[in-house]
Amino acid sequence: MKKIIVPVDFSQHSEYALKTAALLANKHNATVYALHMLDIQEVSLTESQINQQEKTMYFLKLAEQKFKDFLEKEYLEDVKVVPVIKHYKVFSEVNSIAKEVDADIIIMGSHGATGLKEFFVGSNTEKVVRNVDLPVLVIKNEMTNVDFADIVVATDFSDESVPAFKKMLKSLEFLNAKKHLLYVNLPNEDFKTTSEMETMANDFLIKVEGNSHRLINVNYVCARSIENGILNFSNALGADLISVITHGRKGLSHIFAGSVAEDLTNHSTLPIMTLKI
Predict the structure, then answer these.
(1) Which residues contact 59 (CB under 8 A, 6 or more apart)?
(2) 17 vs 117: which has the higher pLDDT
(3) DSSP letter at 75?
């Protein structure tokens, strides 16, 4: 945990993320890359190239000053902060920037979404979750500490998720928290008996850690949806963080299949850490 990216849009929720990043940076001697993506609207095609460049420079300077003022926070005084401004708003580019600086994690604030807005528009946080290859920690509320004691790690025990699951466990190591693996058993054609779930869990953990895999706390719950199963279990446990693997679906497959990670991001009050397969 040496390099943290925090996308900033000057909102209260992006400040929640920035505060969380500052707490982690102080604890792990990390550098925070504060990223602002400047959405410059296309200028008229009738304008000259000189006028277009002048407008771009004007908005860029304006954003730089606003960004500088936003980062003058007391909680950032002892933190190494690198401001980054990009004059585009393409969310796949966040992944390029993360690779460029060799970041370990992205921390984002999210207020969630509901109803038609959630279905048709989604949120910027969801778009980042779908497009990046490293862990994304989504913060929903202001955090006063980052002493995560109990983390729920949701899994479907699929072979496809093994590489991402290994990476997720490694990403969570710096928190030194107790991990509670969770499988949600649904009342449909995929319903599993206890012995079937135990066999799946054992086979999965052997693939993750080999024949000498250590005992990991595995939990099974029955629920009508994966999202409800994870949220209910996490709330009953008093968890500090929920961790989940996402397929990063896009387009029609995303609309029809949905995404558990995005549902959790929208509806959970707990911090969510996602990692895309």
Answers:
(1) 38, 40, 87
(2) 17
(3) G
Distance CA 67, CA 83 (A): 8
What's this model's pTM, rounded to 2 decimal places?
0.84
Distance (Å) of CA 272 to CA 74, 115, 135, 150, 256: 26, 21, 10, 13, 23
3 state DSSP class of 121: coil
pLDDT digits (tens, 9 = 90+) for 178-214: 999 999 999 988 899 999 999 999 999 989 877 545 5
Backbone angles phi, psi at 152, to 5 degrees: -90, 120
- Give yes or no for a contact between 145 and 50, defined as CB atoms under 8 angstroms apart: no
Q: What whole-number distance in Å separates Cα of residue 124 and Cα of residue 121?
A: 9
At 48 the three-state DSSP class reads: coil
Pairing between β-strand 272-276 and β-strand 150-154 as defined by DSSP bridges: unpaired
pLDDT of residue 272: 92
How far apart are the C-alpha atoms of 145 and 268, rounded to whole Å?
18
Half-sphere exposure of 105 (CA within 13 A, CB side): 30
Strand 31-37: give its sheet, edge to edge.
Answer: 80-86, 31-37, 3-7, 105-109, 136-139, 272-276, 241-246, 150-154, 178-185, 218-222
Q: How far apart are CA 216 and CA 153, in angstroms?
A: 11
